[in-house]
Structures are given as structure tokens and as C-alpha cells.
Amino acid sequence: MKKIMTTTAGNPISDNQNSITAGQRGPVLMQDYQLIEKLAHQNRERIPERVVHANGSAAFGELEITNDISEFTKAKVLQKGEKTKLLLRFSTVAGEAGAADAERDVRGFALKFYTKEGNWDLVGNNTPVFFIRDPQKFPDFIHTQKRHPASNLRSNTAAWDFWSLSPESLHQVTILMSDRGIPKSYRHVNGYGSHTYSLVNDKNERYWVKFHFKTKQGIQTLTNEEAAAIVANDRESNQRDLYENIEESNFPQWDVKIQIMTEEQALNFKFNPFDLTKVWPHSDYPLIDVGVMTLNENPKNYFNEVEQASFSPSNVVPGIGFSPDKMLQARIFSYPDAHRYRVGTHYENLPVNRPLNEVNTYHTAGSMNYEKKEVTNAYYEPNSFGGAVEDSSYAEPDLKIYGDANRYDHNIDNDNYSQVKDLFNLMNESQKEQLFSNIAASMDGVPMEIINRQLAHFEKVTPAYASGVKKALGI
Questions:
Q1: Which amino acids are annotated catalytic?
Q2: How far apart are CA 364 and CA 425, in angstroms?
Q3: Cβ–Cβ < 8 Å for 429, 179
Q4: How far apart are CA 323 and CA 399, in angstroms?
Q5: Which of 124, 176, 262, 310 lies 20 to 30 Å from 339, alpha-carbon distance?
Q6: What digits encode the pLDDT tens for the residues 118-168?
């Protein structure tokens, strides 16, 4: 008898692949209670470490803006000459706390800027794309990267089964299985905001933006064999490298750049510019120099300043905002929800999370509430007792919404292969051979049915991709 998938309350689920959005390009609607249940449940699956990105390292530093981009944004943190303290946390996605650093995995690249207008968090990765484009699939994807509930072992079969059934993952999978899949150190990775965000200038004009952080140390990577040798002797290789280099005043740096797209260009672009599985071609939207980021201070207490550090893309400042990117929209909810559960209701009162400017809210009670502000009659809003009030001058320009609310199939009329082909063609022969070998190694124990399904996706990219993997597999 066919089993019908339901919510925890027993409500039948009609579509577990696509979120309810206002039109084909989003944004996600809060009425999608099935999505919210999935995300909220995932945030509470483990106690107390992070569900994802549990194993990480961090350092404090400074962002210096060296170029004028005021035509795009009024954000004070991005004005020429501005210097802003920051915290950057690197991490692996899948590994638990204490997992080896030198594993084949995406690296988290989470930034907290302590600006004059509040905290701005940019929570990205060392890759410009991700495995999925719809948040409805995120909890399921992460389950494939964690441990099998019976064996408590990582499962190659689960990973490739999901990827082969989710063709939008192919761009990120190709990067993960390439030579860049195991960085030599955190100092030798690029960082990306990954999502599309928005900038608003002093004329209240909106631009879409992507953030890039290019390592000045150069990209350096490890082969599977080199990584295995390192892990055998040092499971904290990336933590050690970052900490020791900063202690020795060998401060790592990144060049900060952006890509800019107008709202009109986004409407007429050849694909959805808010799709997290795709990049904006640099030939169409060239990189614009912004400034330099430097890491120059190690945390004094790892638990207080790294483990309790809480990043969220919901933390924006005037002049920087969101976009209809479906994954970003879900993370705006999911990240703060995870922190309230994992760290505590008032997690942003902690020193590492607290903004530099004055905070005025009407939140009351709750765990970790150690504020010492004098209690007044203005403990609700609106009030007649001089409490903090709203200011409409901070409102963003209207965002036009297109289409009807529905669960749109994100793979209809969506090209999952062209950008992967472009990436494949950029690789030299050595990089391609590493790609084939790494994929073959990661398919150990995977049923042939799943392998063949994935090979069909490689074939759609280019026959050379599929034939290279077949040869490495001995097929």
C-alpha cells in the first residue's frame, strides 16, 4: 500500500520538492507551513552543536573600503575609507564538531561586520553556488550528508542517490569533486556571499549584488592522498594553520569585489538571477573592486567567541537588503531560529554577537535575558512614554511581485547543465583527471542503478565528462 507523506500533525503533503512562492521567481510565502515545519524541525535535531557547519575556526579582522561604490549603496560600512571590525568563521558543512578539517567538503565562510548601523552578517561558502535552489529540499539534502540512522556511518549511496535525483546539484557537485574540493587551509580559499542580495543607494534605487572575496594567498588544494596523510597526523590542520599564522603576524587577506545587476537587467536576463545553483557570467557582469579584508586577531576564548558566535543573513543594515532568492528567504528564518534554540533566546546579547550601536527593542523575558536597562512604562509599542519608535526613512523601495502563489517545479524550463559544461571546459587535463578520480572514489559502494542515473547527468553536460568518470570507475 502506498504511504502518503504527511506533516507531524498528519496533514498530507502534496509537494515535497517546491516551496510556495509568489510567482515563478519567488519570494517564499510564510503560509508555507510545511516548509517552516521542515526547517524548524531540522534546527532542533541535534543538541547542542550546530546542525550544519559544526566544525569551525574563526578570527577577528577588519574590512577596509578602498573604492567608491556609493552610486550603488548608502550603507556606511561600504563607503570609501570606512574601516569595520569583523569576525570570520570558517567551517566544514557536513562534519560534526571534532571532525577532521582536511575532508572533501564545502567550506563555510560566515562574516559578521560590527558596523556603526548594527551588525551585518554575510553567511556564505567558498563556492559561488549550492547543491539546491529550493529550501524545501534542504533538510533532506543535509540528511544525506550526515550519518545513516541505523549504521551511524556516512553513506555514499545516500549522497549520490539524492544528487542523481536532483539535477540542479550538478554544478556544486562538480566543484566539490574537483581539485578545489579539499582546500589546503582556510587561508587559501575564496569566499562568496553566494546568494543574490540587494544594495540601495541614497536615491532609494535598488541594485542586485553578489559578493566575492578573493584570497590574496592564492588558491591551494589537496589531493585525496595528501589529505589522508594529513588527517592521519593532524585532525585540526586548518584550525592550526589559521591560528598559528595569525599568532606569527602573517595576517591573511582577501580582495573584496562585487557584481552588480539592475532590476531591469534581472527581469530580462537569460535565466533566473536569483537561482543559487548558477553564477552570473563575469563577461556580462564584471567584478568591481571594493576593498580589502584582513584577519589579524585570534579569539581569546574559543567557546565564547566562536562556538557561541551566531550568524544570520537576516542581519542587514540600511543600504543592504535581500532578494527573491528562495534559499536566502528561508535562511532569513532558519538561522535566527537555530540560534534561539542552540544558544538561547537572547543570543545576540552575548558580547561576540552584540552590535556596537545602541539596541532598542520591546522583547521581554526569555532565557539569557541579562539586560540591565532601567524598566520604564514604555514596555510596549505604540506608547505615550517616550519609547523607541519606527522611522519610515529606512524603508526600502517597493519590490514588484510577479505571478500567482503556488508550488512551482524549479526544474521546469531550467538549464542545469550549461554552466557545468562551462566549468568543465575551463579545467585542464590534470584537473579533469582529478575530477574523474574523486567522483569514482566517492561512489564506492553505491548501487549501479544510482551510478547510471548520475552518469546520465554527466552525459548531458558533455560526453567527455561521462566517459571520464566511466573510465575511472572501470566501466
A1: 53, 125
A2: 56
A3: no
A4: 9
A5: 176
A6: 999 999 999 999 999 999 999 999 999 999 999 999 999 999 999 999 999
Strand-pair partners of 253:
294
Distance CA 320, CA 78 (A): 9
285 is in an annotated binding site: no
Residues in the chain: 475
Give domain limits for the chain.
Answer: 22-154+181-358
Report angle CA 316, 137, 419 to the nearest 5 degrees: 80
Q: Judge residue 94's burial from the number of C-beta atoms within 10 Å of its C-beta, 0-12 exposed, 13-18 middle, 19 or more buried.
A: buried
CA distance 239 to 307: 14
d(CA 355, CA 160): 42
Global pTM reads: 0.92
Q: Answer yes or no: is pLDDT of 202 > 90.
A: yes
Q: Which of 390, 468, 391, 395 is nearest to 427 (CA)?
A: 468
Q: Using alpha carbons only, how large is the chain's radius of gyration in Å?
A: 23
Dump pLDDT digits (tens) for 15-55: 989 999 999 998 999 889 889 888 887 887 765 788 899 89
C-alpha cell at 345: 533566546
C-alpha cell of residue 326 = 528562495
pLDDT tens per residue, range 276-315: 999 999 999 999 999 999 999 999 999 999 999 999 999 9
Q: Which three three-digit cell numbers place residue 200?
A: 540601495
- b/e map 38-65, b = 16+ CB within 10 Å: bbbebbeeeeeebbbbbbbbbbbbbbbb
Tell me the three cell numbers of residue 25: 521567481
Q: Among candidates 356, 386, 383, which has minimal Cα distance to 374?
A: 386
CA 32 to chain centre: 22
